[in-house]
Write a structure and sequence with these properties.
It contains ten helices and eight strands. By secondary structure, it is an alpha/beta fold. Helix 2 packs across helix 3 and helix 4 packs antiparallel against helix 7 (177-187). The chain is globular and about 60 Å long. The termini are far apart.
Length: 268
């Protein structure tokens, strides 16, 4: 389905019934990053998935390379779908967008499920994002090979998922400008981390991180938790970055639990 959301058309999808959970995918992915998590979620909740600006089947529009714009896209989509408040589940880049949304629009968020994400980036990570943005901007002939190598790295702890991961990410970045836009937004976390603003997040927050995640390690999860009053961290032993495919049942359990807890609190 398509929805006119400000200056873009957003591709969105819906399954299940119940209280809403909105899933936000990571860099270079599309909504199918959550493919392994859906079977459990759709039995208890109304699940909304969408493609980020310039990813998958969503258009790029007047992209400005900021997390605020990516967060604003989500809020406009909620408005369009008539969803007042929802649990937000964000993976990697999606988790950063979820935090930005909870900071700027606390009335729209009932709870946060943050999966393999971070609130800041170091100098090496910022350079990684800037280099890929440069490759897109300059039409570097090595771009596709680089993105494929990045995909294999993300899925290195789940090699059986590499083929599907390559299919999704090649399709989602067929026009790589949305990828570059998101890279720019993430690189900005070097100079402007979310850390000083995390105290504004009042929603219950569950943070899930893989013990062997080299992209958003457990330390990143602990930094986030230290800034949010109602936050908990669970470290998944022996797992890496791609928890939605490495540990889909665990991810689903966290999100369903957040929804059930906030529903019980609202009815108390």
């Amino acid at each position: 389905m398509r929805a006119a959301t400000g200056d873009i058309e957003t591709a969105w999808f819906e399954v299940g019934r119940g209280d809403p959970i909105v899933l936000i995918h990571g860099l270079a992915d599309d909504h199918r990053a959550w493919r392994k998590v859906l079977p459990r979620l759709m039995m208890t909740n109304r699940v909304i998935l969408y493609d980020l600006r310039g990813h998958g089947e969503s258009t790029l529009g007047e992209a400005n390379g900021t997390l605020r714009q990516l967060s604003g896209d989500l809020v406009v989509l909620l408005d369009t779908l008539g969803i007042e408040r929802a649990v937000l589940g964000g993976f990697s880049l999606g988790g950063t967008i979820a935090m930005r949304t909870a900071i700027d629009h606390p009335d729209r968020v009932t709870a946060l499920g943050l999966i393999s994400t971070s609130s800041r980036v170091g100098s090496a990570a910022a350079e990684w994002y800037r280099e890929r943005e440069r490759m897109v901007r300059e039409g570097d002939p090595e771009l596709r090979a680089t993105l494929d190598a990045d995909t294999r790295d993300v899925y290195r702890m789940a090699p059986e998922e590499i083929a599907d991961g390559l299919t999704i990410r090649r399709q989602s970045t067929a026009d790589p400008r949305g990828f570059a836009n998101a890279c720019h937004a993430m690189a900005s976390l070097r100079e402007h981390p979310l850390d000083p603003e995390l105290g504004a997040i009042t929603a219950p927050t569950a943070i899930l991180t893989g013990e062997a995640d080299q992209h958003c390690p457990p330390k990143a999860a602990q930094i986030i938790a230290s800034g949010i009053a109602q936050a908990s961290v669970e470290i998944v032993p022996g797992r890496g970055h791609a928890l939605p495919v490495e540990e889909p049942e665990k991810v689903a359990t966290v999100l369903v639990g957040l929804s059930a807890t906030t529903r019980a609190d609202a009815n108390a």
